[in-house]
Design goal:
It is a multi-pass membrane protein. This protein is an all-alpha fold. Helix content is 85%, strand content 0%.
Length: 93
């Protein structure tokens, strides 16, 4: 029974990693094909937020909970810093 449960948990982890990886690929593709327009940097930061969520799920699935929570805390600060710099410095693509 224990062995069956471990196999089930392993399968669930693999499925979670596949779904999150697909999300990363889809978001990266969307990031790549997006045309330049006004305030595109904010849209790109949003897409990177989607990638961050997928990476968080992958870390959880791989059993790296401490790394996942550190990533979950630091990633929004980094995105905010980039957006704040773009707003204050009027960055253009």
């Amino acid at each position: 029974m224990v062995m069956l449960m471990e196999q089930f948990i392993g399968i669930v982890k693999d499925i979670l990693v596949l779904i999150a990886s697909f999300g990363i690929l889809l978001a990266s593709y969307r990031l790549w094909i997006e045309k330049d327009r006004k305030n595109i940097i904010y849209a790109r930061i949003h897409i990177l937020g989607v990638i961050d969520c997928a990476c968080f799920l992958i870390f959880i699935a791989l059993g790296e909970t401490l790394l996942a929570f550190v990533y979950l805390i630091l990633a929004p600060f980094l995105a905010h810093a980039i957006a704040h710099a773009a707003y204050n410095d009027n960055l253009s693509e």
